[in-house]
Amino acid sequence: MAYRYLLYMLFLAMLPALSYAQKETHTDESKVPDFSIPDLFVNLKGQEIRTIQDWAQVRRPELVHLFEENVYGTMPKAMDAQTFTVVNEDKLAMNGLATLKEIDIEVTYRSQSATMRLILFIPNQRKEAAPVFLLINHRDPENIDPTRKIKMGFWPAEEIVSRGYAAATFHVKDVSDDDKVTFTEDILSKLYPEELEKENGMRGLGAWAWGAMRAMDYFETCQDINAKKAAVIGHSRGGKASLWTGASDTRWAITISNESGAGGAAISRRKFGETVERINTSFPYWFTDNFNKYNNNEALLPIDQHMLIAAMAPRAVYVASASEDLWADPKGEYMSLQLGTRVHREIYKMTGDFPKEINSPGNPVHLPYAGHHIREGKHNLTPYDWNLFMDFADNYFRFKNE
Ligand code: GTR
């Protein structure tokens, strides 16, 4: 008896070590396991995908569906009504350079409604409807202060406007709080409660992407905005949501991921930095429940994150990393971009390719259909990154005009 008790106590004492071992992470390239990556160009029936038609009608929808089922959850589309109410307008914002509009977007479904606030600065000096950058903001609201008393590099609205773009943003809390308990409080409990019951239901990141789509609904009604020239951008967890937005909603011309890492641009199978298990443990409310099946079992995933990048094709995609942000796996993010944009090159025959090895800080690679840079320094979204995104967009939209 005493012996069994001793064994039991020993087992209990080892438990934390055991679970720690499972969630162990590393940033050591020599520990990256061998892995084989699912083939972009073979569909679930084993058929080869080689034409634009097969890509657009068969493979792309199949991939988006696999991401819904296994990673981000389904994206509810049902609504009974949607209204846009300008609650504040200042035609002389930013010393007369921009018009500020704050818009309440209200969605009603089955007699319940939810409202999100869109903040939008539209440049006043322009000949035509303005192209727009929408930032999915998960950071403190002071980062997107509409009064501009506080100005943060995370959302350099003045610089965005000075380059001829409208600067738009919303706070994720309006659609789903970034918190494991209260994330249900907005659209999930009010509009789509059945999602919470489903193993493949929408969770936090999916809700943020839903919010970005509602902003796009507004852009499509606003004559000062050119909704055909819209870029969606997010940093880190916001970047995961931004990629999911662009992958599932083809209205976005450019999708930008800034240091989105695990569950974003980084290849899951590399298990470098944050892993699937680690992210599902720390943030159980971001991904759909099914994603847990792949904890420490990435080989079982029917997709990997390069396929999320591929789902943008033929639209443009930009992936940015930071040299000290190993947690987000810059190399894995680059690998996704290289592999995912094979669709642009091999199916859509677009020209230009990424160098085999990741470019060094200070040497961005801007191709006609995709961009990449790695910034010197830590995990953050800075004016340096924004300027490169705008350089890329300048070229991309100029090219599209020609
Ligand atoms: C970290 C998380 C990352 C990333 C980051 C962020 O704690 O592990 O996946 O999303 O937060 O959003 O800054």
Layout of helices and strands:
Layout: H1 2-23, H2 52-72, E1 81-92, H3 93-96, E2 98-109, E3 112-123, E4 130-137, H4 157-162, E5 166-171, H5 187-190, H6 204-221, E6 225-235, H7 237-248, E7 254-258, H8 276-282, H9 306-310, E8 316-322, H10 330-340, H11 342-347, E9 365-366, E10 370-375, H12 383-401
Parallel strand pairs: 4-5, 4-6, 6-7, 7-8, 8-10
Antiparallel strand pairs: 1-2, 2-3, 3-5, 9-10
Helix pairs in contact: 6-7
The chain binds beta-D-galactopyranuronic acid (GTR).
Features:
single chain, alpha/beta, Rossmann fold, 12 helices, binds beta-D-galactopyranuronic acid
Structure, described:
This protein has a ten-stranded mixed beta sheet, with helices on both faces. The chain is of the alpha/beta class and 402 residues long. The chain has one domain (45-401): 3-Layer(aba) Sandwich (Rossmann fold), CATH 3.40.50.1820. Helix 7 links the parallel strand 6 (225-235) and strand 7 (254-258). Helices cover 34% and strands 20% of the residues. It has helices spanning 2-23, 52-72, 93-96, 157-162, 187-190, 204-221, 237-248, 276-282, 306-310, 330-340, 342-347, 383-401; strands at 81-92, 98-109, 112-123, 130-137, 166-171, 225-235, 254-258, 316-322, 365-366, 370-375. It has twelve helices and ten strands. The model has no long low-confidence stretch (mean pLDDT 95). The protein binds beta-D-galactopyranuronic acid (GTR). Beta-D-galactopyranuronic acid (GTR) is lined by residues 236-237, 261-262, 274, 279, 282.
